[in-house]
UniProtKB/TrEMBL annotation, chain A:
PROSITE patterns registered for this protein in UniProt: TAT
Species for this entry: Bradyrhizobium zhanjiangense
Protein location: Periplasm
Record-stated family: Belongs to the bacterial solute-binding protein 1 family.
Keyword annotations: Periplasm, Signal
Any coiled-coil regions, as ranges: none
Protein's UniProt keywords contain Signal: yes
CDD domains (alphabetical): PBP2_UgpB
Entry protein name: ABC transporter substrate-binding protein
SUPFAM superfamilies from the UniProt entry: Periplasmic binding protein-like II
GO cellular component, one term: periplasmic space
Lineage: Bacteria, Pseudomonadati, Pseudomonadota, Alphaproteobacteria, Hyphomicrobiales
Signal peptide from the UniProt entry: 1-27
From TrEMBL, chain B:
PROSITE patterns with a match to the protein in the record: ABC_TM1 (PS50928)
A biological process from GO: transmembrane transport
Organism from which the protein derives: Bradyrhizobium zhanjiangense
Keyword Cell membrane: yes
Name of the protein in its database record: Carbohydrate ABC transporter permease
């Protein structure tokens, strides 16, 4: 595994090296030093892979010296980036959760990439055309480019195929609607007296993940989480979200096929791998982990619908903070283009399970090979046809937590969905108030 | 029962035949066992080969084929000797400066008379109410202006003064009879000589209690060092460890995490085991439990 990974990396580097030779190195001065902030959204060994990636970049680009700076979770990375910008020490590039871009743009913390794209002699349309259309909603704000998609995800339904067969279900025909999924979950739940020995389904709910899963369920219930055009409105207290949360709650309280309480992502994947949960809804970012650890046949499928098929985008984009010197900005742009090239994109996708945002990545020979051997990696890409942007508002994290806190209360059996959503809406309206006062409510 | 009887052989005669202390002892042992389980699990998980799979991961039973692979993995991912050194520098650096500042400030509040003393003292205590996260941005700007961004000194700086420590030392100094100081004064001792020879030696238990609190809290601090430090070779243990424990959408390698955690807590754990008696007695005499 390691050897083949190195081999792929070697091939990719050889390719980029040829490209790098075309540009003469800057004479005289030393290399431009830049920092890349990165969270670890995946298994920790990838922190080492990130180190390898940056080392290769430095070797092939003598005019730049990049340092990869580990910055915690997605939320921690936002805090650190903001603090560094305010302290006058902005990093040159950041792998930022894709839905934080709008908030950062509102706060004037992002570099508009349009002029850098124009300086390369290409157009916005051409540049964005490399990436899957579904990803553009989180990269383009007011018709300007602010981020470059790096690794992205959609939620998936993971099914333990062996257990499905045992229960008389056909894993080649996965559940397509909530009704079918509820039925599957009931048939896949095993009980000994009052004790459940095997859960039908598990859906994670922890900060960050919980908001994303709520968006997933709300969208497949026909609704929207937020106003995609404007950062000041969220739709928490709506029938579509009430239906979504009630169904999730019913799986726990009424049907008793989902473990009670708010379960974090790693606990969900662990219980799926151990056979304690027969199905789970989780990011495609966990696919490599499941593939490496499952001792049974598994199947990945689209997220079932109640009203329509729809899923949100997840994952991260590369951004350049505002307020950088021109040479650092240029060096960061070189790094970003290199990291999102088809070869790098494809390599990172195979290592993590995230899908590659660059469409050309799927035409590279290594990737074609890989998909033939692992057809499960195709599902997330196919699901992109029904994918929509990830929720992004003014103060995304607090607005998201306004909902998550209430959802956790419901899953823990302490509140009814209707009351919880009303409370969440009220809290979010309060958080969004300053922005609305400055925009939609500021009348001429 | 024989073992428990023997344990109570030295107890005062009156309680030797009573049931309550024995019951208390048994309960303590049970509680200790519950407390010990995560440690045992960490030890077992560290030595469990990945080939056992995730199914056995939650079991406390040790694997039949123990392996050092997890330790090797953790060791390779993180530069632990370097992280440990950085954390040690941060903790001792903070503590040494704190000793000086809290002694002087505590003495001032306990023994000196000056205008607005009570008001200033309450202002001091109000710091304890502030959530540290609130101060991240102002502290970081200040540190960047001082040219201390991405330095260990920058990590230590905000903690050089301690409101809690000042409060603790004020209480300790106030408990010391003024007659002792008066006697020294008659012998011609100056201000710093009195602090050095009377107040400090008599407050040692409070100093060690404070040292434990200070070292453990800074040893475990994650967010602030994460904000200040960029260079990988300046990371403290917490930041180094989280490289393989913090995940959002992915999953976790429990064996590696267990091994990494073991390496992080080992120095503190060993220190505690060696100085156990002294630690406990310092808390008892300083009135914190």
């Amino acid at each position: 595994m390691l050897l083949s990974r190195r081999l792929m990396l070697g091939l990719a580097i050889a390719g980029t090296m040829a490209g790098a030779l075309a540009f003469p190195a800057l004479a005289g001065e030393g290399p431009t030093e830049i920092d890349l902030f990165f969270p670890v959204p995946v298994d920790g060994k990838l922190a080492r892979d990130m180190g390898t990636l940056i080392k290769e970049f430095n070797e092939t680009h003598p005019e730049v010296k990049a340092t990869a700076v580990y910055t915690g979770s997605y939320d921690d990375t936002l805090i650190k980036t903001r603090a560094a910008i305010k302290a006058g020490k902005p990093p040159s590039a950041v792998i930022m959760s894709a839905n934080f871009l709008l908030d950062m743009q509102i706060e004037n913390e992002l570099t508009n990439l349009d002029s850098l794209i124009a300086a390369d002699g290409t157009t916005k349309e051409k540049f964005l055309g490399q990436f899957f259309p579904a990803l553009q909603g989180n990269a383009v704000i007011n018709r300007s480019v602010y981020g470059v998609p790096f690794h992205n995800s959609t939620p998936l339904l993971y099914i333990n195929a062996d257990k499905a067969k045992e229960a008389g279900l056909d894993p080649t025909k996965p559940p397509q609607t909530w009704a079918e999924l509820t039925d599957w979950a009931k048939k896949l739940t095993r009980r000994e007296g009052d004790k459940v020995t095997q859960w039908g389904i598990a859906i994670p709910c922890a900060y960050d993940y919980c908001g994303w899963m709520m968006e997933t369920l709300t969208m497949s219930n026909g609704g929207r989480y937020y106003n995609e055009e404007f950062g000041g409105e969220v739709y928490y207290d709506t029938p579509s979200m009430l239906g979504a949360l009630s169904w999730w709650n019913d799986l726990i309280a009424k049907h008793k096929v989902h473990p009670p309480g708010a379960t974090p992502g790693p606990a969900v994947s662990t219980s799926f791998i151990s056979g304690n949960a027969a199905m789970m809804m989780l990011s495609t970012g966990s696919l490599t982990y499941v593939r490496d650890n499952a001792k049974f046949n598994y199947k990945v499928a689209f997220i079932p619908r109640n009203v329509r098929n729809a899923v949100p985008i997840g994952g991260a984009s590369l951004i350049i903070p505002a307020g950088l010197e021109a040479d650092k900005q240029k060096a960061a742009w070189t790094l970003i283009k290199w990291m999102t090239s088809p070869e790098k994109s494809a390599w990172w996708s195979r290592a993590t399970g995230y899908f590659a945002p660059n469409m050309a990545a799927y035409k590279t020979p290594d990737m074609v090979d890989f998909l033939n051997k692992n057809p499960d990696a195709k599902t997330a890409v196919e699901q992109l046809d029904v994918a929509k942007p990830w929720f992004a508002t003014y103060k995304t994290v607090p607005v998201r937590k306004n909902l998550e806190d209430e959802v956790m209360l419901v899953l823990n059996g302490k509140k009814q969905p209707k009351d919880a959503l009303a409370a969440a809406q009220k809290a979010a309206d309060e958080t969004l108030k300053p922005y609305n006062a400055e925009t939609s409510l500021k009348l001429p | 029962m024989n073992l428990i009887d023997r344990l109570f052989r030295d107890a005062p005669l009156a309680t030797r035949r009573e049931i309550t202390p024995k019951l208390g002892f048994v309960l303590t042992v049970l509680l200790a066992l519950v407390w010990l389980i995560p440690f045992l699990w960490m030890g077992v998980a560290t030595l469990r080969p990945a080939s056992d799979g995730i199914n056995l991961m939650a079991e406390l039973m040790p694997s039949l084929k123990p392996t050092l692979d997890n330790i090797r993995d953790a060791w390779e991912i993180g530069d632990f000797p370097r992280y440990t050194l950085n954390t040690t520098i941060i903790c001792t650096g903070i503590l040494l400066v704190q000793f000086v500042t809290i002694t002087l400030a505590g003495f001032a509040f306990a023994r000196l008379a000056f205008a607005g003393k009570t008001l200033i003292f309450y202002l001091f205590l109000m710091q304890l109410m502030l959530v540290p996260v609130l101060l991240i941005v102002p502290n970081l700007s200040l540190i960047a202006q001082l040219g201390l961004y991405d330095t260990l000194t920058g990590v230590m700086m905000p903690f050089f003064a301690s409101a809690f420590g000042t409060f603790l030392m004020r209480q300790a100094f106030e408990a010391i009879p003024t007659e002792l100081e008066d006697a020294a004064l008659i012998d011609g001792a100056g201000l710093f000589q009195r602090i050095r020879h009377i107040y400090v030696p008599l407050s040692l238990p409070s100093f060690s209690a404070f040292a434990i609190i200070s070292v453990t809290s800074h040893w475990n601090d994650f967010l602030w060092p994460l904000m200040v430090i960029n260079s990988p070779d300046k990371r403290p243990l917490t930041v180094g460890l989280s490289v393989f424990t913090k995940t959002a959408e992915g999953t976790q390698a429990w064996g590696t995490i267990a091994a990494g955690t073991l390496m992080v807590i080992a120095p503190l754990l060993v220190t505690f085991l060696i100085f156990q008696k002294r630690f406990i007695s310092s808390f008892v005499t300083s009135g914190i439990k």
